[in-house]
Structures are given as structure tokens and as C-alpha cells.
Amino acid sequence: MKYLALIYSSPETNPMPNTPEFGEMIAGYKAAWETYEKDGVVLAGEALQPVETATSIRIRNGETELMDGPFAETKEQLGGFYMFECDSLDDAIKYAKLIPTAQNGTVEVRPIQTYDLG
Amino acid sequence: MTKAAPDAVHTAIDYTLRQDRGRLIAALTAAIGDFELAEECLQDAIEAALEKWPASGIPKSRRGWLLQVARRRALDRFRRDKSLKEKSAQIAVLEQAEADAPEDTHDIPDHRLRLIFTCCHPALDEKTRVALTLRTLGGLTTEEIARAYLDKPATMGQRLSRARSKISKAGIPFEIPDGEALEERINSVLSVIYLIFNEGYAASSGDAPIRTDLCDEAIFLARLMVQLCPDAPEVAGLLALILLTHSRNKARYLDGAFVPLDEQDRNLWDQKRIKEGQSILEAAMKRGQVGPYQLQAAITALHCEAASAEGTDWPQIAALYRLMEQIAPSDIVRLNLAVAVSYAEGAEKALGMMEPLARSLGKYQPYFAAKADMLRRAGQIAQARVAYESALALTTGQADRSFLHDRLTAIGDLPKKRPS
């Protein structure tokens, strides 16, 4: 099964650059990626530019509306993701737990829906 | 086979599901690989039984019949549904089962332990875990579970179907967890098993005072857990607790009427269960990792060891509840502590400890039953009557109602004798 691990964090609780905590977080992401590659479970994984760079799009009655920023105003913002290929939710949770941001933000694990288009 | 009346068919199906629902769902999930689909196929099989049994008669092995029909339904779906074509492994398993001789009642492989880990998965919220385990492994109806948790049946039904859907779509595995996840998964399972036992023991619904099938189910599951986790003292603690509590079940009801602990005929207590419980508990306690289940088992063991109600070591029981209040504080523990104190140090002192609990336990039947008894022993008859009435209003089991009613009538005589 494919799972998407969505990484949410708030700027207030994220470690600041040039602090030891920031260094630990970066090292944690590096270590996690090495485990993912070694176990052959990662299909994709990216960090996103800050939420200030986001553009939201809505089309209503044929009219395109662009919005500066994210659609939803929440404290924790989507900051990155991994896509895993795992046998079960237990395995997906095991790998998602390695994401350092789980320690100050939230990681949401969602199964990918599959369609049979054949 | 002879024909069967529709009523008899309903009774036979209800009884079979009560006994064997868990075993059937576990066997189907193992064969099909999908819990939600297993539920749907069993439902199909139940409908087929309702349709066919009145004409064909009730088969000798009812669960064997249901399992076979459910498997056939699953096979049909796999063959028909193109999106399920990756399921060749499952199709092979089902075809093999189909080719084998018809199931005897005793040769359905037991996959219930895997099923309980699935139903108790922490990705489901706690209430859902309990409800799903009771429904799936305990074989309770949705209505019974709804009543136990003060929910509407429709709400509980939605909760159960959401849970099945999540298990299937999110890939919650049907397997025994390993490694570091095992301990937290075990704790989740233990609390669910204990709740199943209590549902059977307390019989919050219906007229059968003790639903031994559920108690036996809990004992069976607790034993399986002990086999799986021989080094976890709390697992043994839970089994000891259940065995010790269950040892008294024959003495708890006389002619359908509830008998309180202090009036029970101790000759009816099951000494074999008591001895087994004691030795399991002793071995667990030696490990020096005390927990709530071991403490509760130790308290129950003290009751079992007393030759008479008067001979009960209440100061020791109160001490164990105080320890329990430290490691697992809750108002239920404080209520039990108050009851122990009422015997060890007097009802008046205990009534003082009951006051702060009134708010949180204001809808909890045992709170009023205990309070009524303390008031009665303290000679505060008018207030005792009010408390008995509150307890009665919260009681649904017929045997418990009769007991409370008798107590109420007994004290009700007193004021009438006074000149008015």
C-alpha cells in the first residue's frame, strides 16, 4: 500500500536556524532518509517552501480565483511530505515516527486511494 | 433435514453468532485478507441462512455452514470484481478451503488473537476499540454495546462501520505486533479484555445474571495473551484477576436474585480457580513490577482467602486501594477505597470520602448502591432509601433490581412501625 506522511509544523515550535536544535533536526531528517532508502520504502519526499509562497486556486462558475497564501488558516502548516510503500499502517507509522518534526509538530499518515482505470 | 420454524431459525442464528462470531470473522479475515469484506460476506451468509434454513432445516454445524457460504461469497466477489484481480493469493486460499471437506465445528482455525490486535489498534479511538472487540469477538449486538455505553444504536452502528472501513482502507494489519510496539499494543488489548469480562460478569443488560460465555471468552483471550507474553506481569495479573473474580460466580446469584459478597455461600466458590489465580498472581508479583491489574487481583485474592465475611482483611484491602490510587488514580478507585474503609474504619468515615465523588459518579449505579449500604449501616435510614431509589433507577439487570428492591423494602419497614 502507498501512504502519504504529511508533515505539519508551526513556526513558533520549529527549531530556529543556527541553533543546536536545528542541527539535530537536520541530522534527524538525514538519518530518516538513509533508513527509508536502506529499507526501500520511500517513493518520494520533499520539503516545501514556506507557506508565504503558497498560492491557492479556486474555480467557480468558470471564474478562476487566485488567493495569496493557503486556503485554510491553521496554526500548523503543511511543510513537507513523504510517500511510502509499505505493507501495513504499522509499517507506515514506524517510518513516519522517524520524521523529526513529529517531536514538535504533527505528522499525519493517510493511505493513498487507488482507482482501477483499466 | 426437516423444516424449521422461522423463530427457531432466528434463535439458532443468534445463538451461533453469540458463540462464534469472533471465530468466524477471524477465520474469514485470515482467508480473505480484508476485515471489512469478511464482515460483509458473513452478513451475506446470515441472510442466506435466514432464507434457506426454514425450508432446509437447521444444519448440524451452523458455524461451518455460515463459514462455507461466506467464503463462497468472497470467492464470487473476487472472481467477478475486476478491481480485485490482484487477489490471486486469496482466491487460491478460498478455493482450497472450498475443496476441503465441509467444516466440522471443531476444526476452524483460531485466529482470534490476531483479530483482537486489529480491533484494539491504537489508530482507532479507545471507545471504538472496545465496541469493535465486543461486537467482533464478544458477539454482542450493536444494541447491547450501545446500551452499555449510553449511545443510540444508530450512532454505535456508524462508529462500527467507520472503524471497519478504516481498518480496511488504512491497512491496519491483521497480525500479532512485534518488537517495541508490542507492550503498548498489549496494554490496549488488556483493557479491552477486562471490559469484555466485566460486561459478562456484571450483565448490565438482559435477564441472564451472568453471561458466562463472555466471561469464558475473556478468560480464553487472557490465557492466550499470557501464552504470547509470558514475561509481562500485568498480563498474568489480568488473568489472575479474572479467574479470582470469576471463582465467585456461582455464589453471586441465588434463585435469580443477586447475593452480595458478604452474604455469599463461600462453599460455592470455585477453589480450583482460586488456587490457579493465586499461583499466577504470586509468580507475577515476584517480578517486582506492580501494576493496576496485579493490585486488583491481590485485593480479590484477599476476599477469596477469607473464611468468612467478618474474617476479611479490610485494612490490607484499604492499603492496596491506597497504593492503587497512587499508581492509577480514578474516582472508581476512590469509590472502592471508600467501601474498604467503611469496613475497616467505619461507615461514617467512608461517607465523608463519598461526598467528593458525587459529581463525577452521579450516574454510576455502584456509587449509589455502595452509598445506600453505608447509610443503612450508619443508621441513616431516610437517606439510605433515597440512595437505594437512585441506584434502582440506574439498574437494568433484573437480578440486580430485585436485590436492591429487597433492600429498599427491608429498610422501608422501619419508619412505618413508628407512630405517625
Strand order of the largest sheet of chain B: 1-2
Q: Which secondary-structure class do the elements of chain A indicate?
A: alpha+beta
How would a crystallographer describe the biggest sheet of chain B? 2 strands, antiparallel
Task: Please state the average pLDDT score of chain B.
Answer: 86
Radius of gyration of chain B: 24 Å
Secondary-structure element pattern of chain A, one letter each: EHEEEEHE
Order of helices and strands of chain B: HHHHHHHHHHHEEHHHHHHHH
- Low-pLDDT stretches of chain A are none
**Low-pLDDT sequence parts of chain B:** 414-420
* Shape assignment of chain B: globular
Helix content of chain B: 55-70%
Radius of gyration of chain A: 16 Å
Oligomer: heterodimer
Question: Would you tell me the structural class of the helices and strands of chain B?
Answer: mainly alpha
Quick structural overview:
The complex is a heterodimer of chains A (118) and B (420). Chain A has a single domain (2-111), classed as Dimeric alpha+beta barrel (Alpha-Beta Plaits).
What would you note in describing this structure?
The complex is a heterodimer of chains A (118) and B (420). Chain A has 118 residues and is an alpha+beta fold. Chain A has a single domain, classed as Alpha-Beta Plaits (2-Layer Sandwich). Chain A has 2 helices and 6 strands. By secondary structure, chain B is mostly helical. Among the domains of chain B are: 94 residues; 75 residues. Chain B has a two-stranded antiparallel sheet with strand order 1-2. In chain B, strand 1 and strand 2 form a beta hairpin. In chain B, helix 7 crosses helix 8, helix 9 runs antiparallel to helix 10 and helix 16 runs antiparallel to helix 17. The N and C termini of chain B lie far apart (71 Å). At the A-B interface, helix 2 of A face loops of B.
